[in-house]
């Protein structure tokens, strides 16, 4: 059996590793010519780490992961700690430590695990079709590339990201994503305890905004700033420090230290969008996976983890239906749409509270944070983590 995977992001590569482990012949095609992930880092929550462990990457991901011992919320302007609590109860409950990881390193880890030389770079898919649709009666799916070449396979997995062309094919037309109302600036800086403790995930909150740092390996903080602003607001590349200094002028000294430390040239600026969950992920021998299937806001840090869950679920589906592509893809779809859709909606809800869609609800959240001993926040995070394919 041969599978073609479109997209060498964390979803496509996890799926490639997962299918290869079953002995399926896998070919990965990626439009970019080199490994250049968008964004600085991600938090791989325990459910994502369990999927990577399942794929045989336990040691590798632990080496890349930052150690988060505690979590805190800090009042934006005064710098007063609203709450601080240990992550240990969460780790005990779900049985796995989460790991914030630099994106480029996660990407390289996955590429090496699959085989960098086996990834076909510079191959932009321009169309995909299922055999029965293409009218030739064959039991295969076909992908056409911008360079004029074509591949056929027993199945095609479109892990082609948030603007997926495969999704358009599977759903029969384009969809409109929803702007979530804010822009995320993110990057990496050297750890500086004037910003937050070295083993803490620190989040400054106020005015429907947040500024956050968490450790990744190599003595670095992954940082991000959320700034509510209109979609398509003008931005001059490299001006992150100037913009953030103006937006957060009256925030606490730790935030000012972060703004002074960041490198404006490497700070990313991402407009945040998501997509209403949908439950058709498969058309014939073509299926979507990762952001192509469930594009979420990053507010609960689950988009990439959910893509890793897809990959393991896909492996289980082909393990259980080894010679039957339609049955395996149907099992994959049945296993994933509800869970992934729920994470999208949970993230959307959290996004609205964090970014003051209803200012009174956000003010209530700030009051709750001052009373918090970690129990409620950990319960919420555990709720996100539980329910994946690897228990
Ligand atoms: P992508 O990573 O987008 O990869 C898709 C790949 O397909 C790309 O390499 C692209 O070049 C390629 N491609 C696209 N079209 C074609 C084509 N036509 N032909 C060939 N190749 C193509 N998730 C978490 O789990 N935790 C977090 O903390 C977290 N934080 C985030 C913070 C921000 C600011 C953002 C924006 C997202 C965050 N996410 C997080 C979500 C996470 O980044 C995504 O869910 C994840 O990258 C999805 O992986 P993917 O492989 O599906 O898609």
Q: Strands across the major sheet, in which order?
A: 5-4-13-14-15-12-16
Helix percentage: 25-40%
Describe the main β-sheet briefly.
7 strands, mixed
Distance between the termini: 28 Å
Described by the principal axes of the CA atoms, the overall outline is globular
Output the radius of gyration: 21 Å
Mean pLDDT: 96
| β-sheet strand percentage | 25-35%
Oligomer: single chain
Ligand set: flavin-adenine dinucleotide
A few lines on this structure:
This protein is an alpha/beta fold and 391 residues long.
List keywords for this structure.
binds flavin-adenine dinucleotide; 13 helices; six-stranded mixed β-sheet; 391 residues; seven-stranded mixed β-sheet; alpha/beta
Describe the structure.
With 391 residues, this protein is α/β, with parallel strands linked by helices. The chain is 37% helix and 26% strand. The protein has 13 helices and 18 strands. It has helices spanning 10-20, 46-54, 58-64, 88-94, 103-114, 131-134, 165-171, 240-247, 253-261, 303-320, 325-354, 359-371, 375-385; strands spanning 2-6, 25-29, 41-44, 70-75, 81-86, 99-102, 119-120, 125-130, 141-145, 150-153, 155-158, 178-190, 200-206, 209-216, 220-228, 268-274, 282-283, 286-288. The strands form four sheets. It has a seven-stranded mixed beta sheet, with helices on both faces. A six-stranded mixed beta sheet has the order 7-2-1-11-18-17, sandwiched between helices. A three-stranded antiparallel beta sheet has the order 8-9-10. Helix 1 (10-20) packs parallel to helix 5, helix 2 packs parallel to helix 10 (303-320) and helix 4 packs parallel to helix 13. The model has no long low-confidence stretch (mean pLDDT 96). Residues 6-12, 29-32, 39, 42-43, 48, 124-125, 159-162, 165, 184, 186, 270, 290-292, 298, 301-305, 307 line the site of flavin-adenine dinucleotide (FAD).
């Amino acid at each position: 059996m041969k599978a073609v995977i479109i997209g060498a992001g964390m979803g496509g590569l996890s799926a490639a590793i997962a299918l290869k482990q079953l002995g399926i012949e896998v070919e990965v095609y990626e439009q970019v010519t080199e490994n250049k992930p968008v964004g600085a880092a991600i938090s791989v929550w325990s459910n994502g780490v369990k999927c990577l462990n399942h794929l045989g990457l336990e040691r590798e991901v632990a080496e890349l992961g930052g150690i988060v011992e505690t979590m805190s919320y800090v009042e934006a302007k005064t710098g007063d700690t609203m709450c601080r609590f240990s992550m240990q109860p969460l780790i005990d409950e779900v049985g796995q430590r989460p790991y914030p990881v630099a994106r480029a390193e996660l990407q390289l880890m996955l590429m090496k695990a699959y085989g960098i030389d086996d990834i076909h770079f510079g191959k932009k898919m321009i169309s995909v079709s299922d055999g029965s649709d293409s009218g030739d009666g064959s039991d295969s799916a076909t992908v056409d590339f911008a360079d004029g070449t074509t591949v056929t396979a027993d199945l095609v997995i479109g892990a082609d990201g948030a603007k997926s062309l495969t999704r358009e094919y599977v759903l029969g037309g384009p969809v409109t994503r929803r702007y979530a109302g804010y822009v995320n600036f993110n990057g990496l800086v050297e750890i500086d305890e004037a910003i937050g403790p070295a083993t803490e995930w620190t989040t400054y909150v106020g005015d429907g905004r947040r500024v956050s740092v968490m450790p990744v390996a190599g003595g670095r903080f992954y940082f991000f700033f959320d700034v509510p602003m209109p979609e398509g607001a003008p931005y001059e590349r490299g001006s992150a420090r100037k913009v953030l200094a103006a937006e957060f002028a009256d925030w606490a000294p730790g935030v000012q230290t972060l703004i002074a430390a960041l490198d404006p040239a490497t700070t990313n600026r991402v407009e945040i969008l998501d997509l209403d969950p949908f439950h058709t992920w498969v058309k014939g021998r073509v299926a979507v996976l990762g952001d192509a299937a469930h594009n979420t806001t990053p507010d609960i840090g689950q988009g990439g983890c959910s893509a890793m869950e897809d990959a393991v679920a896909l492996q289980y589906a082909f393990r259980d239906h080894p010679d039957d592509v339609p049955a395996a893809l149907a099992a994959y779809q049945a296993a994933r749409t509800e869970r992934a859709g729920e994470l999208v909606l949970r993230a959307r809800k959290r996004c609205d509270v964090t970014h003051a869609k209803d200012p009174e609800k956000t003010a209530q959240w700030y009051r709750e944070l001052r009373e918090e001993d970690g129990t409620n926040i950990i319960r919420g995070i555990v709720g996100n983590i539980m329910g994946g394919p690897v228990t």
